[in-house]
Amino acid sequence: MEILSPFLGIFTCLILFYYRKSFNKSNLYLALFFLCSNLIVIVYFGLHFSNNPFFEGIFFINFLPLSFVIGPLLFFYIKYAVADNKKFIAIDLLHLLPVVFVILFSLPYITLPFSKKIEIAHHIQSVTHDYDYSISFFSLKQMLFLRPLHLFFYCIVSLIYFKLDSRRRQTDFGALPINHSVLKKWIYSLISLQLIISTYCFLDSFAGWVLNDFGTIFNNKNYLRFLGSAFFVQNTILFLFPKILFDSISYPNASLAKNLNIQLQKSSSNELNTNIKIQLNQYLLELPYIKNDFNLTKMALDIKYLKGFYQIILKLSFPLLLVNGKMI
Fold first, then answer.
1. How far apart are alpha carbons 82 and 80 in whole angstroms?
2. Is the distance from CB of 252 to CB of 177 less than 8 angstroms?
3. What Cα–Cα distance (Å) separates residue 145 from each residue in 67, 96, 315?
4. Alpha-carbon distances, residue 71 vs 48, 157, 198 (angstroms)
5. How do residues 55-69 score in pLDDT, each as one tens digit?
6. Which of the two residues, 308 and 216, has the higher pLDDT score?
7. Band of pLDDT at residue 158, cut at 50, 70 and 90
8. Is 326 helix (H, G, I), strand (E, B) or coil?
9. 180 forms bridges with which residues in the sheet?
């Protein structure tokens, strides 16, 4: 059962990748996040339960850097889901420095002949079970102890970033985008689950490698059960948020407003009116006007047309927003 969960996650990852939108690339980071987190379950199963020296040699240490990619990918997804500018900025590469650090740490093992890897991995996994194996400047035990702390840290950073961005938008525009509530529920669900996973992994490491007590709760079998169950919930809960899964919602991209004059000059009036009217019709299917904070400025932001297009939206939306002869 536990080993089936990551394959569902990989399938979900393919859906996210297939339906990603050109104007909103945040789901690309979400797809990579799902891929990496589910591969961890496969790695753990192959390492501890395959009882095969070949797989032990493959999975031992070689995939350790993967664990330190999950936190930054979570942050990248949340940041670029709500960012005004969806273009990846070079400074964000600094978040991958821990990954580079772990790769450098792992090089003495990664560069060993495969036969030697099998010998070391099988001896530790099947004979000594001692992870206090010094590879370079840290022991493997220390790196495994830092892994859940790294994910926990990025959960907190991602949550703070989302809350600060929501506060900024409320201050700047006087309202939040219409899809904010859906995105908020999904992001809170995703972060909460990662906090639970990272906390359990930390307690497992603490119980085994600090207290030297692998009891009935913290052992390899229960660890796999927990990971499999947690990622099964993560993989299935996304299907409760189809707008996230199929990438049909996104915060407005402010960079679209930079070339409004050029767009207006290139597009004929009739063509522009037709395009905006199509988007208005799709937007109004969600009945945004029944919400208390609905106004035309918010609508203009939600459908990603700002400033120069505001008058056009007003003209086209006026007849659509009349109910019983009154303006909504």
1. 5
2. yes
3. 12, 19, 60
4. 24, 10, 10
5. 888 888 888 888 899
6. 216
7. very high
8. strand
9. none
